[in-house]
Amino acid sequence: MHIMAASYIWLDGKMMPRERCKVDILTHSLQYGSGIFEGIREYNTDSGPRIFRLRDHVKRFFNSARICSMELNISEREMEDAIIETVKKNKLKECYIRPFAFYNDTSIGLSTAGKKVSIAIAAVPFGNYFKDKEKGISCIVSSWRRINSQILPPQAKSSGHYRNSITASAEAKSLGANEAVLLDTNGYVAEGPGENIFLVKNSALVTPSESSDILVGITRDSIIKLAEAFGIHVEERQVHREELYTCEELFFTGTAAEITTISKIDGRVVGKGVTGPVTRLLSSKFYEAAAGRLGAFTDWLTPVR
Prior knowledge:
It is built from seven helices and 17 strands. It has helices spanning about 30, 55-65, 75-90, 160-175, 220-230, 245, 275-290; strands spanning about 10, 15, 35, 40-45, 50, 95-105, 115-125, 135-145, 180-185, 190, 195-200, 205-210, 235, 250-255, 260-265, 270, 300-305.
C-alpha cells in the first residue's frame, strides 16, 4: 500500500524535517541489514490519540538490541518519550510508528565493534495493510522455510531477517496469492512473512508456540489475552500443515495486519470461506480495546500529550 512520507523524523535526540535526514550510502546497516526495528500503531480513541502497547513494543525493541549485541545508549523511558514526541510533532491522530536502530558507520567490513549506533523514529499515516482483511485473503504455504535459532535469532526483530519474509511473500504473490505462510525447519506451521497465525479448531483457538521459531508478536499476545478474558480456550503448540486445511477459521495478526481473515489456503477454502464467529468476536474486542472501550485493557493505551 502507498504510505505518505513522514514530515518529521526523530534522529539521535533531534527532531528534524524528513528531507534533512541524510544517511550515507555505505552505512553498515544498509549494506548488511544489521538494523533492528519495531512497528507500532497509534489509534484515535474516544479520549484522544493513544499509542497501542507502547511499553511492550519498546521492551521488545530493547530485547532485539540485546540479542544483537547492539548498545542503544538510551533508556526505555527515554525511547517512549521520543516516540510520543515524534507522533505529536507530526500531528497525527492515527499512524504507524517505526523506530529503527542502525549502525551509522561507513567503514567496509562485517564487524560492528565500536561502530556508532543511531536511532531514528518515524510516524506515518497508515490504513489497512490487507485491503480484504475482513472479507478474507488467500495464502499459500511457501516453499521457503522460516529462519530458526540455529541460523539467526528469530526473537530479534532485525531488518536483515526480513529477506526471508520478502522472498516468501514474493513467491506467494507470483503464484496469485495475497500472502505466504512459512513452515519451520521441522515442517510445522510457523507464521506469515510479517504476521502471526491463529486457527480455530473444535472451538479452541490454536497458535504456533515459540518452539516453531516465531517472532512473538504484540498483537498475538493481545489476541491471546482477549480470548482468555472472553472464555475462549487457547492452545500454544506445534501446528501441522494439514490443520490449516481442516480448521474452522484461520487468521493473521500483526501490527500492520491487525486481524486479517484467511479465507483460502493452498487453494482450499477455509471453513465456510468467510470470517467466522470466533475471529469476528476477537477482532471486535481488539478494536474495542484499541479504542479504549474495554476497561480491563485501558493500560494498553498510552496518551499522546
